[in-house]
Amino acid sequence: MSAVLSFFGAPAVMLARTVRASLRDGVPWRESLAQLHELGGRSVWLVMSGMAFFGAVLVTIANSQATRFVGNVAVLGPAYFELLIRELGPVMSAMLTASRAGASHAAELSTMSVNEQVEALEMSAGDPYADLVAPRVVAGVLGVPLLSVLGTVAATLSAVAVAGYAFGVDGRAFMDPRYVDGWDLLAAGLKAVGCGLYIPLAAAVAGLKARGGAEAVGEATTAGVVAASLGCLLIDFTVSLAFQLLRL
Amino acid sequence: MRMLAWLGRMGLDVVRGAGALGLVAGRTVLALPRLERRELARALVQFGHDSLPLALATAALAGVIVVLQAGLYIQRFGARAFLGWASGYGVLWEFGPLLLGLIMSARIGARNAAELATMQVGGQIEGLRGIGLDPFAILVAPRVVAMELSMLALSTFTFLVAILFESVAALLTLGLPLRVFYGTFADMLSPLDILGGVVKTGAFGLAIALLSTAVGLSARGGARAVGQAAASAVVRGCAAIFVLDFLLTALLAGWMA
């Protein structure tokens, strides 16, 4: 029970403290840009190549379902394209970002707190929430939606290529936006922003709590990545359920 | 010129990584007969039993998400009868193995790499070699075997829980009777479909175990190297899972069609 409470409560408290600290001290924009490069620029190859393989898998599965029932992947294509835009693009990109950026945030912050650099920052009148956590949160909220757009594009292009070359069907049928409407884009955007907000917070919770030696750094990294990935799934579930209940 | 240097460095990194992975895999196989039993038991408890809540939570979420998404198409095309088959197929072939692999890579891969990197940085692995013990038999082989067994066992529970939650979610959100859900599920899925998911999960488990131990053993430097090894193990594990997922899907789909 206490594990569940702290899973949901600790990031909320972290968010509240970060917002309060950055309202008081302001967000260091230069550091936010550096973090955006760290989270976005250095994850972009992982996200794009991972999503390209995922798009190829998606069209392979669509093809094997289509050959069994309806004959041509062109019939299933638009439905799968909507699924990719609304659901799999944002969430899979966010989970890949969670593994890359969540791990590096948690490792960095826990190294700093194990080496008492966080205390040193407080001693010199800095605020760890405003100086360390806020830039990462800003970078996550801006970076994860951008990464999920790039990941979705990569998945679509590779799906079109695989459909064309491997299955000999017109791949352009796959990227038919017939079923995509504004609500799909809203759901995708909410998922991406939610995950972008959650990943740095979960990593910061795990990282700033670390005490001890090198082993604590490893444990904090594990805890941060697990919390970030599971959080992305939960956010996805919550948004999907809300849209389903509202019949959007 | 800079491009060329970058390409060369990438190439060297790839060769070095593949070499380290091959070396770890080979020495692990050689060490299998001498594997440390007590360490294996500890790793089985840690990887399998202790991951059960996380794996089951992931499975439940994956099942409900698949049904919520499929519900969109069900309402649009009116193909309610296909839901059992479509969501069962989605979980068995794709989302069950993929999400279990990603979560376990985050949990076990990072922990393996961090533990081995701590020992490597602290000189404990040199120490083991110094007193004539093989670190592969004591540290690596038990982890690889335990990871493989845990993943195979967890995949069964994952599939069961995911399908249970799917049927309940279909009942609650779409009003689809359980009888209809399991009816199409049983009629249209063959045992081979379950095999596909199990093969994928097993391959992911092997990749995570070998990659994370190879990354951990090659850590050099101070305390910073431990965090970097843990992060790098997760990243490589996720990348390997997506690549393997594609290769296995193409292979199995081609073989079964």
Describe this structure in words.
The complex is a heterodimer of chains A (248) and B (257). Chain A has eight helices and no strands. Chain A has helices at residues 2-25, 29-41, 44-69, 73-114, 117-123, 128-165, 182-209, 214-245. The longest helix of chain A has 42 residues, at 73-114. The model of chain A has no long low-confidence stretch (mean pLDDT 83). Chain B has 257 residues and is mostly helical. Chain B has nine helices and no strands. Chain B has helices at residues 2-31, 37-49, 52-77, 83-121, 124-130, 135-174, 178-188, 191-217, 223-256. The interface between A and B is large, with 56 and 55 residues.
The helicity of chain B comes to over 70%
Beta-strand residue percentage of chain A: under 5%
How far apart, in Å, are the first and last alpha carbons of chain B?
48 Å
Rg of chain B is: 21 Å
Mean pLDDT of chain B: 84
- Percent range for helical residues of chain A? over 70%
- Let me know the largest β-sheet of chain B: none
What is the makeup of the main sheet of chain A? Answer: none
SSE order and pairing:
The complex is a heterodimer of chains A (248) and B (257).
Chain A: H1 2-25, H2 29-41, H3 44-69, H4 73-114, H5 117-123, H6 128-165, H7 182-209, H8 214-245
Helix pairs in contact in A: 1-6, 1-7, 2-6, 3-4, 3-6, 4-6, 4-7, 4-8, 6-7, 7-8
Chain B: H1 2-31, H2 37-49, H3 52-77, H4 83-121, H5 124-130, H6 135-174, H7 178-188, H8 191-217, H9 223-256
Helix pairs in contact in B: 1-6, 1-8, 2-6, 3-4, 3-6, 4-6, 4-7, 4-8, 4-9, 6-8, 8-9
